[in-house]
Design brief:
Elements (H helix, E strand, L loop, with lengths): L3 H7 E3 L6 E3 L11 E2 L1 E2 L5 E5 L2 E4 H10 L10
Antiparallel strand pairs: 1-2, 2-3, 4-5, 5-6
C-alpha cells in the first residue's frame, strides 16, 4: 500500500495550485512535470508505482499521512 513517505518521494504537492509535480521520472513522464490527467467522469488521476490513484485521495494522504476512510469532500 502506498505510504505518505513513498508519495512524497515521488510527488510534490503545491497547495497554491492544487497540482502534484513529479519528483522522479516515472512511467514515461519527466521530472518536474505536472502529474495527472482528467478522466471522463471529471476525476483527476495519476499513477504512482504503476498503480492509478484519484488525486484528491492522494492529497489527503500527502497532508495527513493517512488514507481517507469513505468519501471525502473535494
Amino acid at each position: 500500500m502506498l505510504t505518505q513517505t513513498r508519495l512524497k518521494e515521488v510527488l510534490d504537492y503545491c497547495t497554491k495550485t492544487g497540482n502534484f509535480i513529479r519528483r522522479l521520472k516515472q512511467s514515461g513522464t519527466r521530472q518536474g512535470a505536472i502529474a495527472g490527467s482528467t478522466r471522463p467522469d471529471g476525476y483527476i488521476v495519476t499513477s504512482v508505482d504503476q498503480k492509478v490513484y484519484k488525486c484528491h485521495r492522494l492529497v489527503w494522504l500527502y497532508m495527513t499521512g493517512n488514507w481517507p476512510v469513505g468519501q471525502i469532500d473535494h
